[in-house]
Amino acid sequence: MFELLFLGTSAATPSAYRGLSAHIISHRQYRFLLDCGEGTQRQILRSGMGFRRLDKVLLTHAHLDHIMGLGGLVSTLARWEVMENFDIYGSKATLGRVRDLVFGVALRGNKTAANVNLHELEGDSVILEDGKFKLTCFPVKHRGPGCFGYAFEEKPR
Q1: Which of 42-51, 57-66, 105-114, 119-128 has the lowest mean pLDDT?
Q2: Which amino acids are annotated catalytic?
Q3: Of 61, 63, 9, 82, which is closest to residue 40 (Cα–Cα)?
Q4: pLDDT at position 16 over 90
Q5: Contact present, 150 and 135 (Cβ < 8 Å)
Q6: CA separation for the pair 35, 57 (Å, rounded)
Q7: Who contacts 79 (Cβ-Cβ below 8 Å, separation ≥6)?
Q8: pTM, entire model
């Protein structure tokens, strides 16, 4: 079973009641953050879910309202030194902005206990698969290049 937690559903401008785009998808031992708008850390804390096992980020596209929360999130997780790897998935255009934000601003030359890995997506591809579950990405049309959707599938039993 998949669990979906809506952290932010607002458009490009946050409101007093809705944060910018961010969702957590949980399935068995996996937890994925889908987009990471500003205020995502606060919304995660308010939800009571916490940061445990949140080591994979799936980005839909490069618009700032979907990625600006990553700098603070990576900085927080780096200080805690609780995970080995932090994997961020997105298009070439998206990861270019993320690289600038995370490595040029948030970490700016600092070493972290966690390896921050950027994974460039192209076309339809499998991101993760095990005996019971498969996660794939597929291109979608939106404003600008390199936009992706994601499919979470349980395998037949």
Answers
A1: 105-114
A2: 65
A3: 9
A4: no
A5: yes
A6: 7
A7: none
A8: 0.92
